[in-house]
């Protein structure tokens, strides 16, 4: 036992010593943002940059800072790692309280040990509650006064969507369907499996999101890669790094778009009806590479992963070169800054209460970096749109998740608008759902 503890202490010391190593960004986050981001040469180091903000939570009375003309309050507190949100037609708000499933073969050895230690420090290694909770603000004061367990016994749930009276959940390994009655506060049963999703003992990017087509006949499901850049072998990536199109009734499916390392948020752009997604790009090429991005999703489109990034910039770390795929890799529409961990995505609805600057475009929840010095992300931003495309630099909507000492008081993930047009933000470190509303004159 003493020898094991001594070894563990030694490995811990090595891990934290490694945190002081690595390179530092030479560019600003804004340089890697927009329609034409700067893409410097890769800066690979022997020891990857590890720079994670320690998760400390919010002190009593503290909260993030919202943009001018808005105000923020806690819609719900004392949740268990809230990651994703969905608003039902009657105004009830659903929150997926979830974390990673067991994945014993993901990042083994010293590398895996170091990564797990740093993820634990970031608040990302906790048991999954495996449930969806319903929050109800019946009196309309901006605070959920009741909460009930809506669905339980799930397997690291994430995305949710209601089609008619069919409620779909994207678990980490399957899409499930439940019968929903308007106004229900709890759904019984284990749900009917619609389709299996790639999972297994690695399941590196486990979060699966889901949206429905306008007519409800098709479901679109995000499936992240099983590695950073294919180091677990291309066979382990079968069906992954992609958005699936699934027949809602039969479960028949096809790859709608591929080469998307870790797509999470999806949203329909209101003026064009196009599907958009945000994507976490690859790590360990330096603090200035590679920008995460948002993009319209082309049917049959290939976006480069793992062979290239941001179009046709070849990643030489990939052992199996595929120049024919690189040649057709699409350039994303809009960069969101390197390592910002952009996850949440929602389009501003017509009934939004937010100021005019936030009326046409999309909100992005940025969970925050671990592979960049200094930090990036840790905020919610708004990207303005015109004619169905991004039209300007991002605007900060909710900030202050990092303390003056660079500790993570919270980390934003899912973003959604409530029935009244106020922005809701899931904060999985603060265990809060924040509500951002326009100030009344």
Overview of the molecule:
By secondary structure, the protein is mostly beta strands. It has a single domain, classed as Neuraminidase (6 Propeller). Helix content is 8%, strand content 34%. The strands form seven sheets. Strands 2, 22, 23, 24, 25 and 26 form a six-stranded antiparallel β-sheet that branches. Strands 1-21-18-17-16 form a five-stranded antiparallel β-sheet, with no helix packed on it. It is globular, with a radius of gyration of 21 Å. The N and C termini lie far apart (65 Å).
Would you kindly provide a brief summary of this structure?
The chain has 441 residues and is mainly beta. Helices cover 8% and strands 34% of the residues. The chain has helices spanning 2-19, 109-121, 323-326, and strands at residues 33-34, 65-66, 70-76, 82-87, 93-97, 131-136, 146-151, 160-163, 166-170, 174-179, 192-196, 210-212, 218-223, 242-247, 253-258, 262-268, 275-280, 291-296, 308-309, 313-314, 334-338, 342-347, 361-366, 379-386, 389-390, 395-399, 412-417, 423-427, 432-438.
Write down the Rg.
Answer: 21 Å
Q: What is the overall silhouette?
A: globular
Overall average pLDDT: 93
CATH architecture name: 6 Propeller
Number of domains: 1
Taking the sheet with the most strands, its summary is: 6 strands, antiparallel
The helix tally amounts to 3
- Looking at CATH, the homologous superfamily is TolB, C-terminal domain
List keywords for this structure.
single chain; 441 residues; mainly beta; Neuraminidase; six-stranded antiparallel sheet; disordered N terminus
């Amino acid at each position: 036992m003493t020898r094991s503890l001594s070894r563990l202490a030694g490995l811990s010391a090595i891990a934290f010593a490694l945190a002081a190593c690595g390179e530092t960004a030479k560019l600003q986050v804004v340089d890697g943002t927009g329609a034409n981001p700067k893409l410097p040469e890769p800066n690979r180091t022997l020891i990857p940059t590890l720079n994670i903000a320690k998760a400390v939570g919010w002190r009593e009375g503290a909260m993030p800072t919202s943009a001018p003309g808005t105000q923020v309050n806690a819609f719900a507190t004392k949740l268990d790692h809230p990651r994703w949100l969905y608003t039902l037609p009657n105004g009830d708000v659903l929150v997926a309280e979830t974390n990673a499933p067991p994945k014993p073969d993901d990042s083994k050895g010293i590398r895996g040990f170091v990564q797990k230690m740093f993820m634990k420090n970031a608040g990302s290694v906790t048991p999954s509650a495996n449930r969806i909770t319903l929050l109800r603000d019946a009196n309309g004061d901006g605070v959920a006064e009741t909460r009930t367990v809506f669905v339980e016994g799930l397997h690291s749930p994430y995305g949710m969507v209601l089609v008619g009276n069919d409620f779909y959940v994207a678990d980490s390994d399957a899409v499930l369907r439940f019968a929903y009655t308007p106004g229900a506060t709890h759904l019984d049963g284990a749900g009917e499996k619609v389709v299996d999703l790639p999972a297994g003992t690695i399941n590196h990017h486990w979060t699966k999101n889901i949206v429905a087509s306008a007519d409800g006949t098709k479901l679109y499901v995000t499936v992240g890669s099983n590695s950073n850049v294919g180091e677990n072998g291309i066979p382990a990536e079968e069906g992954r790094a992609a958005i699936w199109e699934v027949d809602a009734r039969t479960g028949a499916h096809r790859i709608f778009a591929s080469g998307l390392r870790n797509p999470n948020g999806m949203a329909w752009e209101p003026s064009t009806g196009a599907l958009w997604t945000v994507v976490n790009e690859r790590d360990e090429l330096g603090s200035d590479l590679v920008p995460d991005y948002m993009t319209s999703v082309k049917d049959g489109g290939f976006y480069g992963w793992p062979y290239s990034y941001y179009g046709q910039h070849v990643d030489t770390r990939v052992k199996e070169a595929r120049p024919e795929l690189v040649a057709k890799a699409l350039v994303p529409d809009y960069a969101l800054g390197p390592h910002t961990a952009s996850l949440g995505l929602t389009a501003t609805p017509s009934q939004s209460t937010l100021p005019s600057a936030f009326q046409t475009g999309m909100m992005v929840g940025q969970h925050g970096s671990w592979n960049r010095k200094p930090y990036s992300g840790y905020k919610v931003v708004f990207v303005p749109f015109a004619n169905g495309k991004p039209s300007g630099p991002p605007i900060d909507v909710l900030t202050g998740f990092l303390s003056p000492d660079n500790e993570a008081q919270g980390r934003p993930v899912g973003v959604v608008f409530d029935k009244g047009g106020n922005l809701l933000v899931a904060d999985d470190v603060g265990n809060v759902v924040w509500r951002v509303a326009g100030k009344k004159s």
